[in-house]
């Protein structure tokens, strides 16, 4: 029992590659277990059972496990730094000296949250179960579910975004390259999605976003439906 208790903290910061979300959002029986966070809200809610996500993601981030690991370890460094600060202040150490020594331990947490806060791990297409899966139904007010890491990288949650209201950006030294404007609340959702991943399906999405942003990288035609189709 003692051995298992001692190993628990190590497992919580393990670098072992694992599935970040254990819930299958495309399964109707598990839909309520999948948590989403709508733009402009603070609390998560279950996925509407009438909403189904694609069985396979359109996009899977190549560095999801590494970013998750970095977020967890930044929290660990912060905790160690706070504890050391508490101990040193208790013995009357110079506050200037303590602050100088703690900065390397405390600084990674806000920096990593700032730069990696928009990192997208997976992207799913959103379907409505009660609608026919026609081209018109899928592309009218097209919605994607972008999956993000929680604050400290221990779990994931979905954020629904409308493709027509999403734009290309270059913020936070390139760590934010998608920005979604929610029409209902006016809230901005800032995201990072790596380009050249996901094949032609993601190229089509990128082409739409580039059109929205008045950018022409030669991918806009991928959303044009052939005549007579």
Walk me through the structure.
- The chain is an alpha+beta fold and 229 residues long.
- The chain has two domains: 25-62 and 119-223, no CATH class; 66-113.
- Helix content is 34%, strand content 21%.
- The chain has helices at 2-12, 64-90, 95-106, 108-116, 135-139, 199-212; strands at residues 35-36, 45-46, 51-53, 59-60, 120-128, 143-149, 156-162, 166-171, 176-181, 188-191.
- Strands 3, 4, 5, 6 and 7 form a five-stranded antiparallel beta sheet that branches. Strands 8-9-10 form a three-stranded antiparallel beta sheet. It has a two-stranded antiparallel sheet with strand order 1-2.
- A hairpin with a 6-residue loop joins strand 6 and strand 7 (156-162).
- Helix 2 (64-90) packs antiparallel against helix 3 (95-106) and helix 2 (64-90) packs antiparallel against helix 4.
- The longest helix is centred in the middle third of the chain and has 27 residues, at 64-90.
- Residues 1-20 have low confidence and may be disordered.
Task: Give the key terms.
single chain, about 230 residues, alpha+beta, 2 domains, five-stranded antiparallel β-sheet, membrane
